Amino acid sequence: xxxxxxxxxxxxxxxxxxxxxxxxxxxxxxxxxxxxxxxxxxxxxxxxxxxxxxxxxxxxxxxxxxxxxxxxxxxxxxxxxxxxxxxxxxxxxxxxxxxxxxxxxxxxxxxxxxxxxxxxxxxxxxxxxxxxxxxxxxxxxxxxxxxxxxxxxxxxxxxxxxxxxxxxxxxxxxxxxxxxxxxxxxxxxxxxxxxxxxxxxxxxxxxxxxxxxxxxxxxxxxxxxxxxxxxxxxxxxxxxxxxxxxxxxxxxxxxxxxxxxxxxxxxxxxxxxxxxxxxxxxxxxxxxxxxxxxxxxxxxxxxxxxxxxxxxxxxxxxxxxxxxxxxxxxxxxxxxxxxxxxxxxxxxxxxxxxxxxxxxxxxxxxxxxxxxxxxxxxxxxxxxxxxxxxxxxxxxxxxxxxxxxxxxxxxxxxxxxxxxxxxxxxxxxxxxxxxxxxxxxxxxxxxxxxxxxxxxxxxxxxxxxxxxxxxxxxxxxxxxxxxxxxxxxxxxxxxxxxxxxxxxxxxx
Length: 508
Prior knowledge:
Elements: H1 17-20, E1 27-33, H2 52-60, E2 62-64, E3 67-68, H3 74-83, H4 107-113, E4 117-123, E5 157-161, E6 172-174, E7 196-198, E8 204-205, H5 219-236, E9 241-246, H6 258-263, H7 269-294, E10 301-307, H8 334-337, E11 342-344, E12 353-355, E13 359-360, H9 364-371, H10 389-392, E14 403-407, E15 410-415, E16 418-422, E17 430-433, H11 449-470, H12 478-483
Parallel strand pairs: 1-9, 1-10, 2-12, 3-13, 4-5, 4-9
Antiparallel strand pairs: 2-11, 5-8, 6-7, 10-11, 14-15, 15-16, 16-17
Helix pairs in contact: 5-7
């Protein structure tokens, strides 16, 4: 199914009971921001950035206060959302490495079998979108090894880029920069008549065609202009829908348009751009919610929102905040992976609640399958997530699956209030109690050697299970051989000093 802008006929305003009333098949919208810090939303206390629509979601639904991205960088977290599995299992250990393997059974495939329309909008970053021309980071003539568009993973519709783009006028950047501007961090928006250059990352549709129309202005609006027709078409076809909306905001380079710049005019240029593009994204989320309400389907639509990791590094200290948490993007301390998160589903969640139990992006898939009362079609595939339906139903909930996160030479293991941390490939360990010390100021490992050893034992058993999946225990080695990459364990990787600077591989 391809979306096309169209005026809905009068008949499409008559909504199918199948969509609007059948709570066994809710519409599902998964929204993700890119590099948005825990402290960058109003509901988490930002003193500057205005996010009234996200704040309203938190005031109406579930505010997931201890919610984790499955990695401290982009692509792996995205793989976890669609698979319900730790990204190392799926062959996506970091950004611009690997791809979402075709053998993985992902959410759009499963829901499509249940009669859902499926669409993906915004960032993809789970493989390349062309092998016939230069595009973004890895797309180039002849590179079929990394070619892996959404069409191969159960999507009917798509409007996607391989990786990052500017958050305003996403196809261009200025031919020259003023003081304080550059191609990496961002710039004042390009004025009418000002010379510009092609940015080099393109939007593609579900059939692999480059999209050239309606690409000026705020990028979040450009994306939402494709999401709403997809929803309308799903309504007209009397189908429930899965819409995955992965905004580029506020990943660098941050650019805000004139109206949003004006809202933050008393701040430096980089903060004006950063805060402005976040508020612009928030407005599009509000636009989406109003559209659902106008169409009569808001009650039985679950909307999840989170970020893919913590805020970018400290090269611009006015760009992004992890609140009081330690660390930032690429860290496995809380600030690198504890992200802002909210969920609304009015048919099920009748009053606002703040959830303090640990949750993670890998929980999306098992939760949605539980909501539909269906079993995972591949029970031999190990899921790292667990269903959050008890939380949604306001029942007693105690997490019965520990949370492991890996990145480079770093690995952490969450069990209840305890968090085991290694930054040097498993040579040394730190231990924190996140109930009494959420900012991770006091390492208590030396005082709890038995607990450290037990957590290490559990973590290593999980790590070995992930390694087994990576190496093909569940579906063979075809994709592994296509990649030509071997398992790289955080427990044997050479430790790197945490500089919070991008490597060439991580630049997106």
